[in-house]
């Protein structure tokens, strides 16, 4: 079985990441900070600078409070110079305490301003960062192969990464806040250390149980969220088919509403129960661990009170120490929890950054050869074999044929015969597993995928119905000329889309699809004409139409093909169709079965041969008689 490239081994047999992997995940924090910096160096520097100032504020306020208390104690022992404040003021006794009060007021006011400024900077930075990550994610996804999008595993990874792009905003403030708290702790601890060094040791000891608990529950929550990615995607999917314009018709007619709701409910309930179990465990243990920390705080407090009673500490010292200790206690708890949370979040960051590590496999060689323009000889499949990643069976095997320059080739065959797969190989959306495909003798693998795509006009049977204007729906066929009205007009005329557009109330400016306000939906055949116009936007060397006329009525089909023949004259073209009225117009027809060629020839030759083609043709013709 072919494996998916870039797949990582599962973390451990039971699925939980090892200690080393968790440590490894912390690396991502560096990457995150770089990404934040890239988003806006100015705002990042502002956020860090403001936090640095804010970090020093608590010790300054506590120390001012200590000075005030000691001054009050001193003043309460001084003989009163008179009954009123004025008497005290005139005697010059209040100068010092007034200064201290002003100092503390100033500190508190500045802190408030800094707090708000930090909040503002962080919220702007978060939004910018989240946009930046989304843009990087889209840019990276655009580089990946079709294979990645056709694989459930990669879709899970993309979904996890997408969740992280929006979900990690809080991490930014948390990370910077953590640094701020650590500086505050250092300053407070230094103050405390001067008075009672061993108290500092008591603090971390009281938090070890908390750290253990948090790390454990974080890992549990992450693992559940990871295991549940496929189910979450299924939930999204159910939500989508249960309530969307595309699906409403069928869901209503088949009466699938309650079926979908029941399925959604069952899935959601499973996830809910698991999350609830972890939340209950986390909070129960959290309460126990918090009680241990509180006990430690009161033990220390009792000690300081005792030292004050015995006269070793002043009342101001008591205020300072108990204040410091209380804040330290709170901060330690916050920092330790912060660390475990950040470590937890960094597991999720792995989801984001590991997506960026997925590399495309259909690559341009170092020195790509140009796609021949025009094609002079033709395209050759030489013993081509192909199987999709993660599957065992060959979809195509030992396939050899030539598509001569200027020839229109039709591929026919039953469902699953491999027709669309041949087109994917021809467009180098996949590389063959065996053999090679050449254009004028040059292997497709020696050309850059982008260059190949620029020379192709391809419309797949599941083409996109863009919820854009009619103009953009055609213009996207050649985005660099997306505003070239003359070109769009010509493409629309060649594909018969011009008639569709003339009937739209706003013409080319008409919003199509039902997704947005004033959007106008088209019939299947009308959409198809618009899609064909898209492929005509290019001066394509090779035109590939996969079921181009499936939704067209008989008259439109005949007309589209008459134009196609005119347009494709001199151009190489491949058409896939189940309609023999379409197929018979091709210069040559390949009949495929199980990824191999069963018969080849013109319509007349194949009918005369009385083989599979003739049989299928008869079947269809009989249906019309
Ligand atoms: N992304 C994929 N991963 C795995 N198998 C795939 C993938 N795409 C197609 N297949 C399988 O490859 C085989 C050929 O599919 P393909 O789409 O080429 O058939 P087709 O001839 O175009 O069929 P149809 O006439 O129904 O459009 C099928 O058996 C299909 O199940």
UniProtKB/TrEMBL annotation:
Location of the ABC transporter domain: 379-619
Family according to the record: Belongs to the ABC transporter superfamily.
GO cellular component annotations of the record: plasma membrane
GO molecular function term, any single one: ABC-type transporter activity
ABC transmembrane type-1 domain residues: 45-344
SMART domains: AAA
Gene3D superfamilies: ABC transporter type 1, transmembrane domain (1.20.1560.10), P-loop containing nucleotide triphosphate hydrolases (3.40.50.300)
Localization in the cell: Cell membrane
Pfam family, one: ABC_tran
Species whose genome carries this gene: Devosia crocina
Keywords: ATP-binding, Cell membrane, Membrane, Nucleotide-binding, Sugar transport, Transmembrane, Transmembrane helix, Transport
Family annotation (InterPro entries): AAA+_ATPase, ABC1_TM_dom, ABC1_TM_sf, ABC_transporter-like_ATP-bd, ABC_transporter-like_CS, P-loop_NTPase, Type_1_exporter
Transmembrane annotation, as ranges: 182-208, 285-306
Full protein name: ATP-binding cassette, subfamily B
Membrane topology: Multi-pass membrane protein
């Amino acid at each position: 079985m072919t494996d998916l490239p870039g797949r990582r081994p599962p973390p451990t047999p039971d699925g939980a990441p090892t200690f080393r992997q968790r440590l490894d995940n912390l690396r991502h924090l560096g990457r995150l900070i770089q990404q934040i910096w890239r988003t806006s160096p100015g705002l990042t520097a502002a956020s860090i600078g403001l936090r640095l100032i804010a970090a020093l504020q608590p010790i300054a306020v506590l120390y001012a409070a200590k000075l005030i208390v000691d001054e009050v104690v001193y003043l309460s022992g001084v003989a009163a110079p008179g009954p009123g404040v004025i008497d005290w003021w005139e005697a010059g006794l209040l100068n010092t305490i007034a200064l201290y009060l002003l100092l503390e007021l100033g500190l508190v006011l500045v802190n408030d301003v800094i707090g708000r400024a930090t909040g503002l900077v962080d919220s702007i930075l978060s939004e910018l960062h989240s946009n930046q990550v989304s843009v990087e994610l889209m840019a990276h996804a655009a580089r990946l192969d079709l294979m990645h999008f056709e694989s459930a595993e990669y879709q899970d990874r993309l979904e996890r990464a997408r969740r992280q792009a929006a979900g990690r905003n809080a991490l930014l403030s948390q990370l910077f806040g953590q640094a701020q708290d650590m500086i505050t702790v250092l300053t407070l601890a230094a103050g405390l250390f001067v008075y009672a060094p061993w108290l500092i040791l008591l603090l971390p000891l009281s938090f070890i149980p908390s750290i253990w608990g948090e790390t454990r529950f974080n890992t549990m929550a992450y693992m559940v969220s990871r295991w549940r990615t496929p189910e979450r995607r299924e939930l999204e999917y159910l939500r989508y088919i249960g309530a969307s314009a595309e699906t409403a018709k069928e869901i209503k007619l088949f009466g699938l509403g309650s079926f979908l709701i029941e399925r959604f409910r069952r899935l959601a309930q499973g996830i809910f129960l698991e999350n609830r179990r972890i939340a209950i465990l986390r909070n129960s243990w959290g309460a126990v661990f918090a009680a241990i920390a509180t006990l430690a705080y009161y033990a220390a407090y009792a000690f300081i009170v005792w030292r004050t009673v015995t006269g070793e500490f002043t009342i101001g010292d008591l205020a300072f120490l108990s204040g410091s200790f209380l804040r330290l206690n709170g901060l330690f708890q916050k920092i330790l929890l912060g660390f475990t949370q950040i470590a937890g979040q960094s597991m999720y960051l792995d989801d984001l950054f590991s997506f960026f590590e997925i590399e495309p496999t259909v690559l341009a060689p170092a020195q790509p050869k140009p796609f021949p323009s025009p094609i002079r000889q033709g395209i050759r499949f030489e013993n081509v074999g192909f199987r999709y990643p993660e599957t065992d069976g060959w979809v195509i095997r030992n396939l050899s044929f030539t598509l001569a320059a200027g020839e229109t080739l039709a591929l026919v065959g039953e469902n699953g015969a491999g027709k669309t797969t041949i087109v994917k190989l021809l467009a180098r959306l996949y590389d063959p597993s065996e053999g090679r495909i050449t254009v004028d003798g040059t292997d497709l693998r020696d050309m850059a995928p982008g260059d190949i795509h620029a020379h192709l006009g391809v419309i797949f049977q599941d083409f996109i119905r863009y919820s854009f204007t009619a103009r953009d729906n055609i213009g996207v066929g050649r985005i660099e000329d997306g505003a070239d009205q003359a070109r769009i007009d010509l493409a629309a005329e060649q594909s018969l889309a011009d008639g569709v557009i003339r009937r739209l109330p706003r013409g080319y400016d008409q919003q199509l699809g039902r997704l947005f306000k004033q959007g106008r939906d088209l019939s299947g055949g009308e959409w198809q004409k618009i899609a064909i116009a898209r492929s005509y936007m290019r001066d394509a060397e090779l035109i590939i139409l996969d079921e181009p006329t499936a939704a067209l009525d008989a008259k439109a089909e005949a007309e589209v093909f008459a134009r196609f023949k005119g347009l494709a004259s001199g151009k190489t073209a491949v058409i896939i169709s189940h309609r023999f009225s379409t197929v018979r117009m091709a210069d040559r027809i390949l009949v495929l079965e199980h990824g191999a060629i069963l018969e080849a020839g013109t319509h007349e030759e194949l009918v005369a041969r009385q083989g599979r083609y003739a049989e299928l043709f008869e079947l269809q013709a009989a249906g019309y008689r």
